[in-house]
Amino acid sequence: MLPADPDQATGRTRGLLRLYYAATALFLALDFVLGLNLRVAFLDSFPVARLGYYGVLLACLVGMWYRPALTVPIATVESLVTLVALILGFGSRVLLATSPEGDAQAIAPDFPEILNFLLAGAAAYVAWWRGARDLERRLRGG
After folding, report:
1. Could you give phi then psi for residue 91, rounded to 5 degrees?
2. What pLDDT, in 10s, does the model give residues 48-93?
3. Are 130 and 72 in contact (CB under 8 A)?
4. Which is deepest, 105, 126, 128, 141, by most CB within 10 Å?
């Protein structure tokens, strides 16, 4: 049930978004300590880019802590980038019939990639949708 007060909903949204971005530290530990890449599996083949993306996510969290009013816009932009990266990274592998070497099994997504697509994709979509809704409400002055 949604609260009647839009400011209360926005405050709850900000809190959930900050919690999600704070969990980046846990995802980073799972990735580099245990080898379980659930947050940025679309960059699995590029460890430096993957580490850089974790840096961007942590920078988003810092921005949210220091400028709470920008939490929703930051999450909206970052989640859109994540959605595009997931779609391009995951979708291009699924749509290709074979790898350049001709091996169809080489491009099949594995379980961590599918789980990443579902978890990160769902979180990014919800963050983007709620952020876009909040930004629209701000532009309308309500």
Report:
1. -65, -40
2. 988 999 999 999 999 999 999 888 889 999 989 888 888 887 777 6
3. yes
4. 128
What single letter denotes the amino acid at residue 94? V
> Do the beta carbons of residue 121 and residue 59 sit within 8 Å?
no
Q: If pLDDT is split at 50, 70 and 90, which confidence band does 2 have?
A: very low
Identify the CA nearest to 113 among candidates 138, 94, 135: 94
Query: What DSSP line would sit under 3-37, residue for residue?
Result: -SSHHHHHHHHHHHHHHHHHTHHHHHHHHHHH---
Which structure tokens are listed for 68?
């709470």
- The three state secondary structure string of 39-72 is CCHHHCCCHHHHHHHHHHHHHHHHHHHHCHHHHH
Geometric angle at alpha carbon 111, from 120 and 78, rounded to 5°: 15
pLDDT of residue 3: 43
Tell me how far apart the alpha carbons of residues 95 and 114 are, in angstroms, rounded to a whole number.
Answer: 14
